[in-house]
Structure formats: structure tokens, C-alpha cells
Amino acid sequence: MPPKPPPKLNIPPGTTTVTVSAIDSTLWLSGVPTEYFYDPPIPGFGRVRTGCWSLLIEHPSGRKLVYDLGMRKDWWNCAPAVGIKEYLANGTLESLDVKKNVSEILSEGGVDLGSVEGVIWSHFHFDHTGDVSTFPGSTKLIMGEGGKEAFMPGYPTDPEAQTLDSDFEGREVVEVDFRNADLKIGGFRAYDYFGDGSFYLLDSPGHTIAHVNALARTKVDAPEYVHMCGDSAHHCGEIRPTMYMPLPENIDPSPLPHIHAGPCPGGLFSKLLRNGSREDHVLELIDPGAGTYKKQKYALIYDNEKLKETVREVEGFDANEDVLTVLAHDWTLKGIIDEWPKHLNGWSEKKWKKESRWKFLEDFRHAVADGS
């Protein structure tokens, strides 16, 4: 049975592109137990080790934005309520390391931080907010709908806050109001940031209050786009396979080259399929603390039904061949895409989507190898 055609995204036509660069934020999270966060449990998929992408968006006019900042280098100065020291002490995290703030990486690459118009938080979690205070006061902080009420003020003004006062002090904080948005791209309410169709902010609720994705037009002729997803999903197994992009009978390139150097039989992964379906994503995010939070706004999943809707939308974008999906923690892209100071524009000609699409299955190699 052939796959269903991907949904139409109805992206407005445009003739302006932005340049998008993927920056390794130098964060390395090691040892997050998968059984805390994913259903179903997969044998051998014990702990997650991953980094976090930050993305630089450059408009032809010279205006610049940064989407997500990874984690601040001095992570021990995060708000105490984040609980990082406790995570390390109780083994939820084995280790973490941050070598540089994104502001340092940009400065070392020749970017004048004063030219950065705004920093966009996909959401308020510590591994995305970075250290905004390392940017000049002229740089705006941009967040999604409801962010100001939920996350301002920060610590220490609010002792229970997971953001910091220093994130907001001395700068304009802009909340994107999608309530009156008359534009939808896919099923997401959209805001045309530059007003020329080159870069959109997308309201993507569920994981947290004020979660925003972004869509960048990177090519006009034979259109291509980069979809920045933050934590709409954390692992590609949450968005693949789908009815639009079923698990193939033969996967090329092979996600397990040490077992199958050539095309890899898709049937090798049949035991991982939810309900035995080649058309259903492998993993589903769960919240181990559900029902125990003092304040629901700090939950891992703020609204599970809305998150499921957002995941379905991301799946639809991902199934479109002219859209490159960048999940913040998708480290299967590492070694495939060009990183800063190079850019992602032209990704379709370089076949990065094809090369990376099923690479996430390598994370399940032990389940396949041991015959569980």
C-alpha cells in the first residue's frame, strides 16, 4: 500500500530567503535514562547522550536572530529550582559539560553581538535558554505566547522561578501574540517575522507554555525550508515513521553499517514498531513527574493533548521533501550537515535529508543485535 501524500503546508509564496547556520552549542548531556521519558521501553536504549543545536538566522538586510542558546557555560548558576545539582547527585544525569556560551562562539566567528537583533527561546528549559545576559541590551529576547506571565520575573525575585532575572534585565522582552494570527502554516499559527515570507515563528504548544518553532525559507527556485523544532520532539523516533513516510522495506543508507553495509532490511526493526505498524512513530514522550508538580507550568509536558497535536504537525512538515527538520537534540545530523560558519542553505542538493532520515534507528542497535 503506497504511503499517503504529505499534508499541504500552504506556505505563502516569497522571493526572499534567509541564511541559516547550525551551531553546536557545546552542551553535552550524558546519561538521561530513557525509561523515564519514553514509551515503550526499548532494550538496550538505556540512556541518551546528546548535544543541542542553536541556529543563526541572517536576513539579506543584515538583521540577525539566534534561535535557542543551548545551556549557559556556568550551568551551576542556573536558577536553583531547575535542580541540575540534584539531577547529577541522583543519577538522572550522569554528567554534563558546556565549553562555551553561544555568544562566545559567534564572537569568535566574527559576528558583532550588537548586530544580533533578537534571541528566540523555543521554550524556557535550561538547555535552551543559555545566558542571554552575554548579549548586549540592544538584543531583544523573543518568546512565545504566554511566556511573560508564566516565566517573568525570574530568580531571585521569584525564588521558585526556573528562569533568571538576568535573562530579562536591561533588554526588551517581546512576546509573539498568535491570538489574532490570520496566517496558518500547516496547522500552526504563524507570524511572519520580517514581513517578507523569509522567516516565520510557529506556535507549537504542548511541551511547555510559549513553545515556538520556526520555519526559514532557504531557497526560492526549487523551494526548500528549514524547520527549527526546539523540543516539539526530542528524538526522531517521536516523529518517524508515519503514514506519510512508512518504515521502508530497505533502508538506504543503512543506519547499521556495522551489520548491513548496504541497504538495511526495514524488517530488522519490526520488533520496535508500535502496534506492529510501519506507519506509527517508534517513541512517545512521557512525563515521569505527571501529577506531582507543584506548578504545572514547570512540567516536562505542560499539555499532553496539545503536544500530540504538535507532534502530528511536525510529522506532516517532516514528510514534505522540501523541509529539513532540525530537532534541538537530533545529534544524528552531526557529521552530515555543515555547521557554523557554513550554512544549511542548499541542503536539498546535498541530500542531507535522505542521508539523515533513518539514522536515528542506530540508537536501537542493541535491541536489534541481541534479538530481544
TrEMBL record:
Pfam family, any one: Lactamase_B
Query: What keywords appear on the UniProt entry?
Result: Hydrolase, Metal-binding, Zinc
GO MF annotation: an example: hydrolase activity
Metallo-beta-lactamase domain location is 50-173
CDD domains per UniProt: metallo-hydrolase-like_MBL-fold
Which superkingdom is the protein from?
Eukaryota
UniProt record similarity statement: Belongs to the metallo-beta-lactamase superfamily.
Q: What is this protein called?
A: Metallo-beta-lactamase domain-containing protein
Q: Which organism is it from?
A: Zasmidium cellare ATCC 36951
